């Protein structure tokens, strides 16, 4: 390790700056959500995934139904798979974990809110003694490629593969084409953080049957959810070792007219050329 310079402590003492001040973001309008009525739903089996369509102004409720279980969520514009959830920009705008009032943003060139978190029954968890929090936009998703790299074997029930199969079934796309649309996820109910060495950790999720996360659809959505093979992710994933449970996606109608559809980014896409 190189010797520290004479001004090392002064450099370390420079105060941080929040990259994207939250007060500059559009108001999420949480008061829009009134009485809810179930209009559809699907159960997601353990170590598998399912897709469901959610109209603008409806609420997608992701619910624990039998036991502690985390889920990996992909979101797409219902009529255009190229507009999809951008976890990295969501993380930059709202933080490493999301909860009530935060929004899930689509990628470039659209960059608009796809959904807003309007209720989170795990809001109480906050930040634990290890720095763990719930519902992260840090992790990518468990996948068969990393499993092959680290374990030397093929495992087909990772969230990446589950999402690929479910998207293929929902759209009729061949598996290889569907896979190209699968993207980094919202880790629903997953409890994660970084240790003192900066390493990403997971720990057993605090989720219990009845807990739910409600997402108000800002545009017409195709939602795809995998019930992770890690179960509550308290020990491992990418294997059949963990005890897993199903999840449920419910679609709930909201009283009243939905808000106008958010506009796509007005950047002129000139890129300085």
Question: Any low-confidence stretches, pLDDT <50, length ≥5?
Answer: none
- The radius of gyration is 19 Å
Helix content: 10-25%
Q: How much of the residues is beta strand, in percent?
A: 25-35%
- Our measurement of the CA-to-CA distance between the termini, rounded to an integer number of angstroms, reads 43 Å
Number of domains: 1
Q: H/E order of the elements? A: HEEEEEHEEEHHHEEEEE
What is the average of the pLDDT values?
95
| Class per helix and strand makeup | alpha+beta
Summarize the structure.
With 273 residues, this protein is α+β, with helices and mostly antiparallel strands. It is built from 5 helices and 13 strands.
What do these coordinates show?
The chain is of the alpha+beta class and 273 residues long. A hairpin with a 7-residue loop joins strand 6 (103-105) and strand 7. It is built from five helices and 13 strands. The strands form two sheets. Strands 2, 4, 5, 8, 9, 10 and 12 form a seven-stranded antiparallel sheet that branches. It has a six-stranded antiparallel sheet with strand order 1-13-3-11-7-6.
Helices and strands in order:
Layout: H1 8-12, E1 36-44, E2 49-54, E3 59-64, E4 71-77, E5 80-84, H2 87-94, E6 103-105, E7 113-120, E8 133-136, H3 144-151, H4 159-171, H5 175-179, E9 186-194, E10 200-203, E11 212-217, E12 221-227, E13 247-254
Antiparallel strand pairs: 1-13, 2-12, 3-11, 3-13, 4-5, 4-9, 4-12, 6-7, 7-11, 8-9, 9-10
């Amino acid at each position: 390790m190189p010797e520290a310079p004479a001004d090392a402590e002064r450099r370390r003492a420079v105060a941080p700056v929040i990259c994207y001040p939250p007060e500059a973001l559009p108001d999420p309008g949480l008061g829009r959500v009134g009485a809810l009525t179930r209009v559809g739903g699907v159960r997601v089996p353990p170590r598998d995934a399912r897709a469901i369509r959610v109209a603008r102004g409806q609420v997608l409720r992701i619910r624990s139904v039998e036991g502690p279980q985390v889920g990996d969520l992909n979101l797409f514009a219902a009529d255009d798979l190229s507009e999809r959830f951008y976890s990295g920009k969501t993380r930059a705008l709202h933080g490493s974990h999301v909860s009530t009032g935060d929004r899930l943003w689509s990628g470039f060139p659209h960059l608009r809110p796809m959904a807003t978190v309007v209720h989170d029954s795990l809001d109480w968890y906050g930040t634990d003694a290890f720095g763990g929090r719930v519902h992260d936009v840090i992790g990518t998703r468990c996948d068969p490629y990393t499993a092959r790299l680290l374990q030397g074997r093929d495992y087909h029930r990772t969230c990446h593969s589950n999402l690929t199969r479910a998207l293929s079934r929902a759209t009729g796309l061949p598996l290889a084409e569907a896979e190209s649309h699968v993207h980094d996820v919202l880790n629903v109910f997953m409890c994660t953080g970084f240790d003192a060495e900066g390493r990403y950790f997971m720990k057993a999720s605090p989720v219990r049957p009845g807990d739910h996360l409600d997402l108000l659809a800002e545009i017409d959505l195709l939602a795809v959810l995998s019930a992770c093979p890690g179960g509550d992710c308290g020990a491992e994933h990418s294997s059949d070792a963990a005890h897993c449970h199903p999840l449920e996606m419910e679609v709930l109608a909201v009283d009243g007219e939905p808000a106008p559809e958010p506009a796509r980014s007005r950047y002129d896409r000139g890129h300085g050329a």
